[in-house]
Specification:
Two copies of one chain form a homodimer. The two termini of chain A are 29 Å apart. Chain A is built from ten helices and no strands. In chain A, helix 1 packs across helix 4. By secondary structure, chain A is mainly α. The radius of gyration of chain A is 19 Å and the shape is elongated. Helices cover 64% and strands 0% of the residues of chain A. At the A-B interface, helix 8, helix 9 and helix 10 of A face helix 8, helix 9 and helix 10 of B. Chain B binds a DNA duplex through helix 1, helix 2 and helix 3.
DNA sequence: GCACAACACGAGGGGTGCCTCACCTTTCGG
DNA sequence: CCGAAAGGTGAGGCACCCCTCGTGTTGTGC
């Protein structure tokens, strides 16, 4: 267990100990290749394919990114930052309902453009991961966006932040199905769901929401820990 | 390409040429094992595991079911029949909206109880498959259920039968996420979506529905035909 | 321009899963 | 009770993927 990893500047010079020039070049190729592979094939894309696409041996990939998650996190750090920024913008809007729409639409658009991010949004990183903090931040912002929309009266009062997971998961599969066939279909689904989210004329729901623990466990599981039945 | 397959009595005596007793026994074990494996692990469960669970050699499995789809179809024929029967019942109800609810709730419940059926419901079988006709029947019944609910005024007028695929796909992922953690969570999501489906809550949708061709292609793709990017 | 640390390489061991086929074993009709 | 046909078997070929590590290469500071 390596006690620490350098903050890992994504492309440019690093402060601590600048990589050798060939190392930096390979690292960049790997990240570009991974970005492309993950976008096309999802977060589970073969690392050997990534290395091949980067024009680099598999051992080199493992030298730079000992675990798949190291690669995943560097690849998606940027999009996660966009997501966070959008959430902050959404919270700053006067109309909380419009803020919610902006938040969800941006989130779904990020998912739709990148099957890797689609997977990434559905899971929860282990607490030791360096992006775990950003994920927590998104979570907190989401809570506030939902609560504000509820308080302003646009959002139905029985809707809780955990319900947003339904949107993420729904989209995850809808995008898998329609990607390349009907690239904007997800938006129709989103607005159907949003109509279900509105306060006006809401009907009672038959089940309580997920508890935070249930949500956490579900997202962890989608991440990787196999709880098989054996 | 064998020109025909016997209608394949699921467990009992077959009319054409009764299987040898050991063969029948093995066949039944295989079906039981496959039912269990598919229910736990989805339609992609390892066939070698299925054979092992049935206490039978892998070659025997392939002798009875030369292609995975042969096994899948026999396993899910029963549930598909239940689905069809429910759809017919839904159509016979006076209140079309309640019919729609019954139809969707039963469908989702079948999905929730069986990860294999969850996958199965999301795909379209190739036209040569022996259950393809039943799938077409479900599709037709779904169309009539939706149209009737629209005509009676409960369902929003801009909702088309193809939109039901959103529910199937959504649930597919939600069940993957929450199975064993929050076993009824899917119902909350279903009723949120249903609120979005009601005529009284409709707001304009930003995208046209999937065309039947798009839907068909999307479901075919989830089935298996890889359209890779190479 | 040298020497050594940093790095790249890729064969190879381990795992999983698909599917086939040559060779036994069992059943069942006569 | 026998023998032929139906059926069962599982090693093995193939493909994929994971990850490691001993060896060879290259950049860089002096």
């Amino acid at each position: 267990m390596p006690p620490e990893r350098a903050p890992a500047a994504t492309t440019a010079s690093a402060p601590a100990r600048p990589l050798r020039r060939d190392a930096q070049r390979n690292r960049d190729s790997l990240l570009a290749a991974a970005r492309a592979m993950f976008a096309e094939h999802g977060m589970q894309a073969s690392l050997e394919q990534v290395a091949k696409r980067a024009g680099v041996a598999i051992g080199t990939l493992y030298k730079h990114f000992p675990a798949r998650l190291d690669l995943v996190q560097e690849v998606f750090a940027g999009k996660l930052a966009i997501w966070v920024a959008t959430a902050e913008q959404a919270l700053s809007m006067d109309d909380a309902w419009e803020g919610l729409c902006l938040f969800l639409e941006t989130m779904c658009e990020l998912q739709a453009r990148d099957r890797g991010f689609n997977d990434f949004a559905s899971i929860r990183l282990p607490e030791t991961a360096c992006l775990a903090g950003q994920q927590t931040r998104i979570h907190d912002l989401g809570v506030r966006i939902v609560e504000r929309a509820r308080e302003q009266g646009g959002l139905r009062p029985d809707l809780v932040p955990e319900d947003l997971a339904f949107i993420i998961w729904s989209h995850s599969r809808i995008i898998e199905a329609t990607d390349g066939i009907a690239p904007h279909a997800w938006r129709r689904h989103l607005y159907l769901m949003l109509d279900g989210f509105r306060a006006e004329r809401a009907h009672p729901l038959p089940e309580p929401p997920l508890t935070p623990e249930q949500l956490y466990r579900a997202m962890l599981r989608l991440g990787g820990a196999d709880n098989s039945t054996d």
